[in-house]
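QA checklist item 7 of 12: single-chain prediction sanity check.
[x] sequence parsed
[x] length recorded as 1203
[x] structure emitted
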Amino acid sequence: MTRLNIKFLINTSIESILSNLNTIFENLLQEIKSYLNLDLKDSKIKIVYHEKNISSDNLNQDVFKVGLIKTQKNNSLSVFISRTYRKFVRMILLREAYKFFIPRGLQDNRIINIFINQKVEIDLQKSEYIEDWKDFKRKSVINYDFMEAEFDRLENFLKQESIGNKPSPFQFFFIWIRRNIQLIEDIKENIYDLIFQEYNLRYNEYNDEIIETISVITKIFYKIRSYRSLLDYQQYFKKFKDSGIIQTNLSLRKFTANMQWIKNFSNIAPSFQVNWLRLDIISILCFMKFNPLIKTSKILQVINLLPFFMMPRYTKNSFGMEIIGQFLIPKCYVKDLIFFLGKLESNGYLIEKELYIITGTGYTVNLNCFKNFASKSIILNPDKRDYNKEYEIEFSMDYGLETFNSNPSLLDWLLIDRIRYFSITGLGFERKSEMLRALKSDLLNEVISQRNLISDIKKNLNKIHNSPNLKSKFLDFINTNKDFGFFYIKQILNDYITTFDSINKVLLENPSINNYYHLQKFIKEHGISNSIEENNVLKALKKNILREFISLYFKSKKAFKEKVDEYRNFFNIFKSLYDLKIFNLNAVNSIIKDKSLINRIYESKEEKLKSSYERYKAYNITNNAIEQRLDDFLNTDPPIIQPSLLGTIAGIKRFTRYYVALILKDTPQTREGIEKLKWLFPMVIVLPMLEYKTREHYVYFELQIPNLSLKEKQLLNSILYNIFKDNIINIKSYLFSGFYEAFSRKDFYDFEKANFFYTKDLFEEFFHYIQYKLNNNIHPISESFSNISKDLWGKKTELSNFITLIEKRVSKEHIDFNLNNINKLLSYYKNLESNLLDLENFKNSKNKYFFRNYIKSIKIIPSFQHFGFGQYYLYFYPRDLKDIDFKHILHNSFQKIKFPINIDNSNSFLIKFIWPYQNPNKSVLNWLIKSKKVIREYCLFFVKKVFQIFHFNYNLSANEWDLDPNRFRIYFQNILFNPDYELIIPRMKEFKIGDINISNYFTPDSSEYIALTQLFNWKSLDIKSYLGTRNYNIINQIVELLEKKLIFPFISAKNLDLSERLYIILPKVIREDINILIKIFNFFNIGFIYEIEGEYYIQGLNEEIKFENGLMIKLYLPDCQLDEFEKLFDLIFEYLGFKHYLILSNLVNGDDFLKSIYGNLDFLKLYNPLKNLIWNNKDKIWMNHKLFTNKFEKIYPPFNIKE
């Protein structure tokens, strides 16, 4: 990639620049064009310098536009630079030059301007007046929101340069903007995290020499336990290598070069782990199982706001949601938290919660995962010849058991917040002067942020104190809504303002809309904006309030604006009070009524700013002072910090997409099992814990694994179960990006009192918020906590078999994304029926590369209704597994049973049945639900129609899948909100199997039925194994049923690197939305969409809910950001109004489970549910077997009754 060279701008005097403005600017544009490898967005540009000062009325005061006026005429753009900002002409020119590569509609975007401004400071760091420019920017830009978004940490990220084919972060930033142009305005939060994560997932590769250097650096860092510059590491390297402490083939010259590479082109940093107990903070692992009646979208909103909760991971293999994460909470709030979570459980929001105090931390990183030999191995095999034991690196830290207040100062907190992270947001291998500069910058930013916070609070509250009318309205508003609580009111005000702004924009851009009903029609067709989040907010708001506001707009735009401004003022007051941590509405009333109260708060905040913040002068911070504080942190007993580094090796995240979390009893057997497992995977986390109530010892054990096939995941779970057995509390796989957001607890620390700020209102008010957010009248659900069922997981224990299974699969794979070969496969699929019927053509095709490499099997879907059958699915979740007689519920017409890879006191199940058309055998299900009351939830449905997704129009690059959640978001938002969107949808094959208007079925003695039973029993034959052979009987039956369209063939693909399988069940969908969802999910490349009809029930509903129209969607996906896709699915389903739905992942076949039920699987050789039902010759229909006697004794109908 090209490097940026703008020395001509830095070295040219201001006078010369002003004399040659357009030439200099043109040179800048050409240099940036080459650097970014992008085209200009504006072609005709003229720069004019005004010797006379431009009137301040005309001059833009926005810090991101300051110093100039822009005028647009036809295709020409003129930029006028004012003499007032003459000394900043270099900064202004470079800033504007970068912005010319930004799409015009986004050039004023604040986030984009923050990135560009930071890059300008980096590029011109040696230019005169740059410090004046930084001070000017700092005062205008830095506030509480700026700090919270981590924009103060951008510098190190954007300083990285490109190398080879790897773009620099700034080059990637422009690529990302162009790629996500329709999303920029929608993304309000975490954009820095989004870009950082995507950059690291795409570009983090280390060669063998770099891995060796990382191993050496880690050992040096663990030995010296302090920050050191590159020169220091060179000296330590020589010393430790000469003394034999480090054994490596690296020379000093090579080590130095590699260290330089790591410093310049990676995010690896000499980071530290913090012992939070030494800071009076307790780390609590929390597992929460939510009531399935609560909508997923509402749970996610609550979790995002939950105080002190971080690192949430999700699993959703039922109608409900389960979440695990950590509370990193000041000790003074722990009792409030426990009481709060207890209320969530007693009020029915939680079915179950588990709390564990974390007493230490440990993790292992196996750097062998980066070595070339392991690039395809997935699981690390210590028996391999090139495996290096020296690359097994381990970290552990004991927190102790007692909290302790170390009275940290502001400088201490700034250090603690810097030393925990990647080099781009923390501290890297820089010179000590660079580290000192970073901390001084942090201090200045913190002081300015606090000053601006006080200023904003004063401005917002003075507005209301200076206006009796506004004050009266605000107090009335509080009184009317007091039952909702502080957090709910704050959120609803923000939602109304967001919605009113969007509505105002719609009305300004569409002047033909002149009444409320026209606006409703417009929103129905186009949405309120292109953002699904904003449309979901609109749907959630009270319609009467919206109608009142919008009707006001059509009566008087001025009155509408005043009303919106009134709500905006209300929100700003709540935001200020939130920043002050005043959550009690009675206290809010008092502050508004009595101005002297807020004056005292101002005085207190000002005093704290002076005594706790401003007493640190930047010039008083020295390297010696920093080193002394770090030494103090390291040498307390137990220490406050400990060298770690391993967590900053972001390249690990490229290998790990599958996260398995185990909660185990801490026993010798458990520790022995952990030792067996921990070096097989790129990264493992081990957290010793105490159960909160009993104080018994437990361990959290997390495996961070490359994605496995379903068969491999199932084998791993079987091994985990048999290693840990009775020590298992639960084992679950969670959705998680693998990245941790930066956080700080500094904001809750009172420097004046040297303790954490405490208010009992925090969790009390948050519970009020939950009551109104999640529904105040929810039915509590209880589950039995019986022993984990061993029958689900078999008896496999050998890790060697697990490694062998993976290595065999990898060795056999021939992943090939050659477009020519892919197109041949696609062409064959499009004409599959005719290709199969032309036997000579089939024989020829069978020998071609595309066929051998991509076609695993060709299977059939019967047109079940023609034979009087129905294809049924039963999903259910038992409250207690021991209450379920699976042999009875499966009886003699099941096809398959699947369940998620979760080990817990219960699990969900998906069973596939063949039953008589529109006559499912529900007797066992009804008995379990209504008499035994042991089923928490179920969904029973039959398939009416099948659509096959099979195309390669999107998501495939030359060498790999590129399944991008952002592109999916753009795609579905266009479908939902842009009726003019030109969408070319690949044609899907459509199979009607249960929605056919027929009355006469093929009887058991018909040739068609006999043929079907030969080709399809409990599963389909692979018909490609028979066509072209001498098995003429089977071939004739295939041909007969194909020609009569009684079977529908489909291709099961291989060698396309599709490792994920996802089932989505939407049980109640209006007809119009079915067509929309088919379009949306056709974005994906391979899968099936089933139109379904049936019923579902969740405990707490008055009765089962029947539905005529629903969907089941089955997707085959490559390794991708599944957590992000599921969040987008949740947004889509929220918009379409689905209250209850299922997203089932990692469903494995229940072969081991069936063995435990039937003794062995030999019966499957003859088992055919098509032959197991009862034919009623009189009525010419199939009938079910009875499953109960008249006395309700169980009946187990026989298998293969025709044999």
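[x] summary fact logged: The chain is about 40% helix and 20% strand.
[ ] second reviewer sign-off
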